[in-house]
């Protein structure tokens, strides 16, 4: 039999994919990555794949690698798709495919399979990475290619002894990892329907959050958070801690209409408590440490990178080149930001850095002022010289002011 490596989550879609692939003549190797999915029972997921028919079931603890290689660039580049979404699902896909391709090579497999539908972004993200890393591998996408309805999928599962959850099934389609949780489908498909309480699991509703704030000091080194209140933590542990603490205060809820890669609009509900805190603190520290021209130009690169990550272009020469620019800017982003967590908001209230460009003696309006006031007049004259000369020659605005002269 030909071997195929399946990106396995333990859910219904990837579980019914196993007997479907077996019926097609494949020996299935199921691979699940632990990238910090909340409440994921990885041993049970591993056992379920074998129960359903996989010849081998592999679980990889990738939390630290996911944080260091994929979340860290997003932090440094303040990457938010369409200004809001911290790219939760998009980040894990390149790592998942890296691992699957490596296992395919080790196991002499001829193909890779995923459980994405034909409407979503993930099919592109998975397959773009496969084509980039090994275009000779075949690709199978049972859920997309077989056009199953949910009801047909459940019937197929029962016919092939695939365990189906007993009781009321979740009305939502959920993807989660260390960086946050993405939720869609069900009642969320109506943009006029407010997301019900059960759509949220990582964050408390603001009306139920504590009436006193929490304060914390977040230390950054080269743009990456490395400690909370002076205690060093690996990035993945730091994110886990902030997810709990910020979630308690209702921080990180996002309800938005977004433009999918394939061109349709979708309503998405996201929770990213740690991301909200870290990104706010990082941006605040950049305001203190980045030179003006760099600070004004960097958002252009950030927007391009955010779009590229969302649109499955993580593996590309342009992405590498833009990240080189981002990395160069982060050498001075060192220091501590004090954050206030309260009633759904993460707010920077104080900051300090050895690379600070803030000069109190220049900024002050007190008698300690060291700014050369007399230099300002000459600066203004030179700053406006091009426009002044143009107007003296062409009189455009003068004629508009005096149309009858």
UniProtKB/TrEMBL annotation:
Compartments reported by the entry: Cytoplasm
Signal peptide: none
Record bears the keyword Repeat: no
PANTHER family: ARGININOSUCCINATE SYNTHASE
Sequence positions that bind ATP: 7-15, 115
Domain Arginosuccinate synthase-like N-terminal, first and last residues per copy: 3-163
Binding site for L-aspartate: 117, 121-122
Subunit structure: Homotetramer.
Residue ranges constituting the Arginosuccinate synthase C-terminal domain according to the UniProt record: 172-389
GO CC terms of this entry: cytoplasm
NCBIfam families per record: argG, PRK00509.1
Classification via Pfam families: Arginosuc_syn_C (PF20979), Arginosuc_synth (PF00764)
Organism name: Lacticaseibacillus saniviri JCM 17471 = DSM 24301
Protein name per UniProt: Argininosuccinate synthase
Keyword Transmembrane included in the entry's annotation: no
Amino-acid positions noted as binding L-citrulline in the UniProt annotation, renumbered to this chain: 85, 121, 125, 173, 258, 270
Reactions the enzyme catalyzes: L-citrulline + L-aspartate + ATP = 2-(N(omega)-L-arginino)succinate + AMP + diphosphate + H(+)
GO-annotated biological processes: argininosuccinate metabolic process; L-arginine biosynthetic process; urea cycle
Gene Ontology MF terms: argininosuccinate synthase activity; ATP binding
Pathway where it operates: Amino-acid biosynthesis; L-arginine biosynthesis; L-arginine from L-ornithine and carbamoyl phosphate: step 2/3
């Amino acid at each position: 039999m030909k071997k195929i490596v399946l990106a396995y989550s333990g859910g219904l879609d990837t579980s019914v994919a196993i007997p479907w692939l077996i019926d097609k003549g494949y020996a299935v190797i199921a691979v699940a990555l632990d990238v910090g999915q909340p409440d994921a029972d990885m041993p049970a997921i591993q056992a379920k794949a074998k129960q359903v028919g996989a010849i081998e079931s592999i679980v990889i603890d990738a939390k630290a690698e996911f944080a260091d290689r994929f979340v860290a660039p997003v932090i440094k580049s303040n990457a938010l798709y369409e200004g809001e979404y911290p790219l939760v699902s998009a980040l894990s896909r390149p790592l998942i495919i890296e691992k699957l391709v490596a296992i395919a090579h080790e196991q002499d497999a001829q193909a890779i399979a995923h459980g994405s539908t034909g409407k979503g972004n993930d099919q592109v993200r998975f397959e773009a990475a496969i084509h980039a890393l090994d275009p000779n591998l075949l690709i199978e996408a049972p859920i997309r290619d077989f056009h199953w309805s949910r009801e047909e999928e459940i019937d197929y599962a029962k016919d092939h002894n695939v365990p189906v959850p007993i009781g009321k099934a979740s009305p939502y389609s959920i993807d989660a990892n260390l960086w946050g949780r993405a939720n869609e489908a069900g009642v969320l498909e109506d943009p006029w329907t407010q997301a019900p309480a059960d759509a949220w699991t990582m964050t408390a509703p603001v009306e139920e959050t504590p009436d006193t704030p929490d304060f914390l000091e977040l230390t950054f080194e080269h743009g990456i958070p490395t400690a909370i209140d002076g205690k060093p933590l690996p990035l993945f542990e730091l994110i886990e801690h902030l997810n709990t603490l910020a979630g308690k205060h209702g921080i990180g809820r996002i309800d938005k209409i977004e433009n999918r890669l394939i061109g349709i609009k979708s309503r998405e509900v996201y929770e990213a408590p740690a991301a909200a805190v870290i990104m706010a603190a990082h941006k605040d520290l950049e305001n203190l440490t980045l030179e003006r021209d760099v600070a004004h130009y960097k958002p252009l690169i950030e927007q391009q990178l955010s779009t590229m990550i969302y649109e499955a272009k993580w593996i590309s020469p342009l992405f590498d080149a833009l990240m080189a620019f981002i990395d160069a800017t982060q050498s001075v982003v060192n220091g501590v930001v004090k954050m206030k967590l309260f009633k759904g908001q993460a707010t920077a209230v104080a900051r300090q850095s050895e690379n600070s460009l803030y000069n109190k003696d220049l900024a002050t309006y007190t008698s300690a002022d060291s700014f050369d006031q007399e230099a300002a007049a000459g600066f203004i004259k030179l700053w406006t010289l091009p426009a002044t000369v143009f107007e003296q020659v062409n009189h455009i605005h003068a004629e508009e002011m005096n149309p009858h002269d």
